[in-house]
Amino acid sequence: MATTDISRRGFVKLGAFAAAAAAMSGAVGSNLVQVEPAVAAESGETQKVRTICRACLNNCGMIAHVRDGKVVKLEGDPDDPMNKGACCAKGLAGIQALYNPNRIKYPMKRRGERGSNDWERISWEQAINEITDVMWEYYQKEGPKSLVCSTGGGGNPQFFSPARFLSVWGGGNFFEPGCAQCYLPRNHMEFCLNGTADTSLADGPVTEVYLPGILPDDKCTPTKTYVMWGVGPSYHGIGSTGRVVTDLRNAGMKTVVIDPRLTPDAARADVWLAIRPGTDVALMLAWMNYIITHELWDHDFCREWTNLPFLVHEDTGLTYRASELDLGGEDEYVVWDKATNSAKAMPYPFDPSLDPEMFGTYTLPNGEQARTAFQIMKDHVAEWTLEKAAEICWLDAGEIEEAINIYVEGCPNAGISLGVATDQARNSAQAAQGDAVLDILMGCIRQPGSIVQDRPCYVEPCNYVVQPFGLHHPDHPLRMPEEEANARLGYTEHKGLGHWLASHIPTVLKAIETGEPYRPRIWIERSGNKLAMIGNATRFYEAMMTTELNVHMYMHWTTTSVCLADYVLPTAEWLETAYAQDRLNTYAIRRPCTQLYEAVDECMHWSWLAAALAERGHQRAIDSFNPDIAGKFYGTYRRSPRKNPEAPVGSA
Hints:
Layout (H helix, E strand, L loop, with lengths): L7 H8 L1 H9 L20 E7 L8 E7 L2 E7 L12 H4 L1 H5 L9 E3 L8 E3 L2 H19 L4 E5 L9 H9 L3 E3 L8 H11 L30 E5 L3 H4 L4 H10 L3 E5 L5 H4 L3 E3 L6 H14 L5 H7 L5 E2 L20 E5 L4 E5 L14 E3 L5 E4 H9 L4 H8 L3 H14 L3 E5 L1 H4 L4 H14 L40 H5 L18 H10 L7 E5 L3 H4 L3 H8 L4 E6 L4 H6 L2 E4 L8 E4 L4 E4 L11 H14 L3 H5 L29
Parallel strand pairs: 6-7, 6-17, 8-9, 8-16, 9-10, 17-18, 18-19
Antiparallel strand pairs: 1-2, 2-3, 4-5, 4-19, 11-15, 12-13, 14-15, 20-21
Helix pairs in contact: 5-23, 6-23, 7-17, 11-14, 11-15, 11-17, 14-15, 19-21
């Protein structure tokens, strides 16, 4: 990592935020601001508004107590099927976030030079029009590559709003600091292997653990064994995931925790493996070796539902197509049939008249030697004994064996969840593959109580309603043109980022600095403090100081707002927004409980920008409001006057 060198001038600029925050709040000499408490009138009637939290992506059911238009209390909703009335300190602190004196209250425009903290209040109409004027100018001169948008992590319910806007814009770049280091490795790689979903308990489709007590007993098989690999639900989901794991453990579910930390879940686990950080894949390989050599794998599932019996070309590493050996069609693969002792085409999904060998090396009709995929796996993991893994991972071989057997005993009504810990290691993709392979070996796929699920009516929680046009439908007319999609900075070198339509941050910065292969001119940021979240903040600061226009959309003033923004647009807190969240075959509705200042849901920021572009003749923006075009599989952008929002009336 490069050393962080900063000039005295740069330090003064970046360090000025404490004084800036004080100036905005009216304080002198300190960034601790004394404010009057938000107290509702004593005489007002208190209404209870059922809503859902968005302090994180667990979306716990909440009841907001509203008096005279002010939120005076929050509590968990006991009728919510996932958190059942429990909630964490962060969710309860939603009142403090809502009434934080450092909130961005109105659209603001910079008056002095960047970093001077000299602002003027303007109307939404002026802000949107002036921002759009610059965007339209550069779109006409340099095309869609002139724009780069960014956002924050999955806690933002409109995570894909910038990517959706770029698909309407017709190109450009999108980035998010945690993208490659948080959830994306699991979300992308596990799906590639199991064809279903990832195993994240926080934001994946692992709803099976919630079903005991909701479904009738004859329709529900509880999870028998749960392996938390770098996962701490008692920390990250106190109200929902932490609660349900505790309930299941108390009801007899066995647990294995693999984590260097003695977490609350580790303290109560049947086996806790305090693994050496970064050695997870070594341990996974040892688990695979033990399961294969001790014949613990699910024979029927591996035989009928995986590519493990397929024969593999030794040079290319690809499975043979039946057409290559004149045995069948292009869409069929090749197995070695025990009954006929010959190579046979295997149609999808399985031909019960064939009895494929799972292991071995065989001579094909063309004279080439080929191993089964399972034999290749067996050979690959053979060196990874329990003793070798114990040495590398700083563990006890006997405890590793005990953990494996506990996992196996619960299968197929069991599973493994990965967390952010493995995402942030150099072998993040390999760890996600290892997790998927282990559950596949044990047949823990779409079984009652298993972690990998795709139940009808119990599908993945819809954390992100606003989807980019064409994300799941490649024929959508507003999908980003292929030429522009391939021109995203760093995309060809880091294609995994394309799973979330993202660009590579170091490549984006280099392009802004050098103009190679092109120079983004406009930056629209929708999240918190990029100067704190991106490595080598000095370089990021210096690069973004050279852009033509910077726009910051957020709830609160940050260093990024003060030092880099030309316009600051207020976004709403979750207690001010509406949303629909599917939860175990029900919908929970986030209802606006109050409205402060001129903050609006970020969906409206992007809609207003699209509308302003449409007014200037941008054809794709025009189409984004056409239900016959944009409405295909998705909704259109919303047309709404760009005026100050009115406070909604809360209701019980």
